[in-house]
Amino acid sequence: MKFKTLAVSVFAALSMAAGAHAQSVLKVGSTPTGSPFTFLDTKTNSIEGVMVDIVKAVGKEAGFEVQIEPMAFSALIGSLTSKRIDIVSAAMFITPQRQQVVSFSEPVYRYGEGLMVLKSDNKEYKSFADMKGMTVGVQVGTAFVEPIQKSGVFKEVKLYDNPPDMMRDANAGRIQGGFMDFPIATYIISQGNYPNLKMAQSYQPTVVGSLGLATRKEDTALLDRINKALAKLKADGAIDAILKKWGLSGA
């Protein structure tokens, strides 16, 4: 009887240890189309970028491994709340609307939307009002969609599932301008893949926000571990080093 009890106890202990090990690998949702924050590196066939480096550094500091799961930006929050992933680490703004559904870490980077136009367009755009009657594009799921649609100044606002589709249309002149994350647009254009495009340097962003890692509302312990790790990584310069690696200014 004692042997049986001991065997059960040992089995239970081993099961708990195995469960703890399984939980130490967390699935992280990232997008393949958000350079330099997240993008598909075709040489390694893996997702790389600023937010991938940050979540890996956070995991190392907080004591968990990460498994990057590529998916469309618009699917990130749904995948998180349905428990297909455990963390979102992408170019996602912390907004009041999103905070009603998920929890965000402390901010890791701050910026606004940028406007891309044809190189032949020399107009000094500063705000939406300077674009009255234009046909423009914006990526679905971003914080920029609502204010652009509600402005009422555009002839048409086309919605795109990903930046490459929008940038191809802008590069071909099928739309007169495209709105997306300023650092992402700047980085992609600098690579020379869309030779007809430039950033409208005079444009002042309407939506300025901060990026953060997202967790489920109920995962308060995980969020606390993430925030403690981020605080240390900010203090010792690790976050700034990651930003610098990808050509971004310090946080």
Describe the protein's architecture and organization.
- It is a single chain.
- With 251 residues, the protein is α/β, with parallel strands linked by helices.
- It folds into two domains: 23-108 and 212-245, 3-Layer(aba) Sandwich (D-Maltodextrin-Binding Protein, domain 2); 111-208, 3-Layer(aba) Sandwich (D-Maltodextrin-Binding Protein, domain 2), CATH 3.40.190.
- 37% of the residues lie in helices and 24% in strands.
- It contains nine helices and 14 strands.
- Strand 9, helix 5 and strand 10 (156-160) form a beta-alpha-beta unit.
SSE layout and pairings?
Layout: H1 2-23, E1 25-30, E2 33-34, E3 38-41, E4 46-48, H2 50-62, E5 65-70, H3 76-81, E6 87-88, H4 96-99, E7 102-104, E8 109-118, E9 135-139, H5 145-151, E10 156-160, H6 163-171, E11 177-181, H7 182-190, E12 197-199, E13 208-211, E14 214-216, H8 220-235, H9 238-245
Parallel strand pairs: 1-5, 1-6, 9-10, 9-11
Antiparallel strand pairs: 2-3, 3-4, 7-14, 8-11, 8-12, 8-13
Helix pairs in contact: 2-8, 2-9
Which range does the strand content fall in? 15-25%
Q: Mean pLDDT, as a whole number?
A: 90
- What is the global morphology? globular
Backbone structural class:
alpha/beta
Continuous helix count: 9
Order of helices and strands: HEEEEHEHEHEEEHEHEHEEEHH
Q: Label the CATH architecture of the largest domain.
A: 3-Layer(aba) Sandwich
Distance between the termini: 62 Å
Low-confidence spans: pLDDT under 50, at least 5 residues? 1-22
Share of helix, binned: 25-40%
Q: From the alpha-carbon coordinates, what is the Rg to the nearest angstrom?
A: 21 Å
| Whole-number count of domains | 2
